[in-house]
Amino acid sequence: MLKTTVANEQPINPNIVKKEKWEEVSGENGKLIRWNEKPKNEKQAEATIFVGTKIQGIYEEKRENIGENTATMYIINTQDNGLLAIWDTTVLHDKLRKVPVGSEVLIEMIGRQKPKGGGKDYLLFTVKFRQAPIKEVEKEEGIDVDKILS
Description:
Mean pLDDT: 81
Shape: elongated
Low-confidence stretches: 1-6
Strand order of the largest sheet: 3-6-5-4-7-8
Protein backbone atom coordinates (compact mmCIF):
# COMPACT_ATOMS: atom_id res chain seq x y z
CA MET A 1 0.00 0.00 0.00
CA LEU A 2 1.29 3.47 -0.93
CA LYS A 3 1.91 5.63 2.13
CA THR A 4 1.00 9.29 1.64
CA THR A 5 1.97 11.95 4.14
CA VAL A 6 1.29 15.63 4.60
CA ALA A 7 3.38 18.43 6.08
CA ASN A 8 2.88 17.30 9.67
CA GLU A 9 4.02 13.76 8.69
CA GLN A 10 0.65 12.16 9.49
CA PRO A 11 -0.27 9.38 7.02
CA ILE A 12 -3.38 9.95 4.90
CA ASN A 13 -5.80 7.05 4.76
CA PRO A 14 -6.67 6.63 1.03
CA ASN A 15 -10.00 4.96 1.94
CA ILE A 16 -11.16 8.11 3.74
CA VAL A 17 -9.98 10.43 0.97
CA LYS A 18 -12.05 8.59 -1.65
CA LYS A 19 -15.27 8.91 0.39
CA GLU A 20 -15.00 12.65 1.09
CA LYS A 21 -16.54 15.20 -1.23
CA TRP A 22 -13.86 17.29 -2.91
CA GLU A 23 -14.30 20.72 -4.51
CA GLU A 24 -11.98 21.81 -7.27
CA VAL A 25 -10.27 25.17 -6.76
CA SER A 26 -10.07 27.36 -9.81
CA GLY A 27 -7.87 30.42 -9.86
CA GLU A 28 -9.33 33.83 -10.51
CA ASN A 29 -7.31 35.90 -12.93
CA GLY A 30 -8.71 39.23 -11.82
CA LYS A 31 -10.04 42.05 -13.94
CA LEU A 32 -7.49 43.38 -16.38
CA ILE A 33 -6.98 47.09 -15.80
CA ARG A 34 -6.10 49.88 -18.19
CA TRP A 35 -4.58 53.19 -17.14
CA ASN A 36 -6.52 55.26 -19.70
CA GLU A 37 -10.13 56.19 -19.12
CA LYS A 38 -10.89 55.91 -22.83
CA PRO A 39 -10.13 52.48 -24.29
CA LYS A 40 -8.12 52.33 -27.53
CA ASN A 41 -10.77 50.21 -29.24
CA GLU A 42 -13.85 48.08 -28.60
CA LYS A 43 -11.80 44.95 -27.90
CA GLN A 44 -9.87 46.76 -25.13
CA ALA A 45 -13.14 48.16 -23.76
CA GLU A 46 -14.56 44.65 -23.41
CA ALA A 47 -11.39 43.08 -21.98
CA THR A 48 -10.34 45.74 -19.45
CA ILE A 49 -11.67 48.12 -16.83
CA PHE A 50 -10.56 51.61 -15.82
CA VAL A 51 -10.45 52.07 -12.05
CA GLY A 52 -8.62 55.38 -11.97
CA THR A 53 -4.97 56.30 -11.69
CA LYS A 54 -4.54 54.80 -8.20
CA ILE A 55 -4.78 51.18 -7.16
CA GLN A 56 -4.52 50.19 -3.51
CA GLY A 57 -4.75 46.66 -2.17
CA ILE A 58 -2.91 43.52 -1.17
CA TYR A 59 -0.21 42.39 -3.60
CA GLU A 60 -1.34 38.78 -3.96
CA GLU A 61 0.82 37.35 -6.70
CA LYS A 62 3.31 37.94 -9.49
CA ARG A 63 2.60 35.77 -12.55
CA GLU A 64 5.43 35.34 -15.02
CA ASN A 65 5.91 33.85 -18.49
CA ILE A 66 2.36 34.55 -19.63
CA GLY A 67 1.64 33.94 -23.30
CA GLU A 68 3.98 33.90 -26.25
CA ASN A 69 5.66 37.15 -25.14
CA THR A 70 6.42 35.66 -21.68
CA ALA A 71 4.83 38.70 -20.08
CA THR A 72 4.50 39.40 -16.36
CA MET A 73 1.31 40.33 -14.53
CA TYR A 74 0.75 41.57 -10.96
CA ILE A 75 -2.39 40.55 -9.06
CA ILE A 76 -3.67 43.10 -6.54
CA ASN A 77 -6.68 42.35 -4.32
CA THR A 78 -8.56 45.61 -3.81
CA GLN A 79 -11.42 46.36 -1.47
CA ASP A 80 -13.51 48.19 -4.08
CA ASN A 81 -12.87 46.14 -7.24
CA GLY A 82 -11.74 42.70 -6.06
CA LEU A 83 -8.81 41.12 -7.88
CA LEU A 84 -7.12 43.32 -10.44
CA ALA A 85 -4.52 42.17 -12.95
CA ILE A 86 -1.87 44.69 -13.98
CA TRP A 87 0.42 44.09 -16.96
CA ASP A 88 4.08 44.70 -16.25
CA THR A 89 5.99 47.70 -17.56
CA THR A 90 9.69 48.41 -17.16
CA VAL A 91 8.92 51.15 -14.62
CA LEU A 92 6.56 48.92 -12.60
CA HIS A 93 8.98 46.00 -12.78
CA ASP A 94 11.83 48.05 -11.31
CA LYS A 95 9.63 49.28 -8.46
CA LEU A 96 7.53 46.19 -7.67
CA ARG A 97 10.55 43.89 -7.46
CA LYS A 98 11.26 45.61 -4.13
CA VAL A 99 7.75 44.91 -2.78
CA PRO A 100 7.18 41.63 -0.92
CA VAL A 101 4.16 39.60 -2.02
CA GLY A 102 1.53 39.91 0.71
CA SER A 103 2.20 43.60 1.32
CA GLU A 104 -0.37 46.33 0.98
CA VAL A 105 0.59 48.33 -2.10
CA LEU A 106 -0.39 51.71 -3.52
CA ILE A 107 0.34 52.14 -7.23
CA GLU A 108 -0.30 55.51 -8.83
CA MET A 109 0.09 56.33 -12.50
CA ILE A 110 1.50 59.88 -12.44
CA GLY A 111 1.96 60.60 -16.12
CA ARG A 112 3.74 59.78 -19.32
CA GLN A 113 7.27 60.42 -20.52
CA LYS A 114 8.82 60.48 -23.97
CA PRO A 115 12.00 58.42 -24.25
CA LYS A 116 15.17 60.48 -24.77
CA GLY A 117 15.94 58.56 -27.93
CA GLY A 118 12.42 59.01 -29.32
CA GLY A 119 9.71 56.44 -29.66
CA LYS A 120 6.49 55.62 -27.84
CA ASP A 121 5.63 57.35 -24.54
CA TYR A 122 5.87 55.22 -21.42
CA LEU A 123 3.87 55.44 -18.20
CA LEU A 124 5.37 56.77 -14.97
CA PHE A 125 4.33 55.30 -11.60
CA THR A 126 4.90 55.83 -7.92
CA VAL A 127 4.76 52.67 -5.85
CA LYS A 128 4.45 52.59 -2.06
CA PHE A 129 4.00 49.60 0.23
CA ARG A 130 3.54 48.64 3.85
CA GLN A 131 2.89 45.50 5.79
CA ALA A 132 -0.66 44.34 5.16
CA PRO A 133 -3.04 44.87 8.08
CA ILE A 134 -3.75 41.75 10.09
CA LYS A 135 -7.39 40.74 10.05
CA GLU A 136 -9.09 39.52 13.20
CA VAL A 137 -10.62 36.06 12.86
CA GLU A 138 -13.39 34.80 15.10
CA LYS A 139 -12.52 31.73 17.13
CA GLU A 140 -14.57 28.71 16.13
CA GLU A 141 -16.28 26.76 18.87
CA GLY A 142 -14.39 23.62 19.80
CA ILE A 143 -11.01 24.86 18.56
CA ASP A 144 -8.55 26.08 21.17
CA VAL A 145 -6.50 28.56 19.15
CA ASP A 146 -4.33 29.48 22.15
CA LYS A 147 -3.35 25.82 22.60
CA ILE A 148 -2.50 25.46 18.90
CA LEU A 149 -0.34 28.59 18.89
CA SER A 150 1.56 27.73 22.05
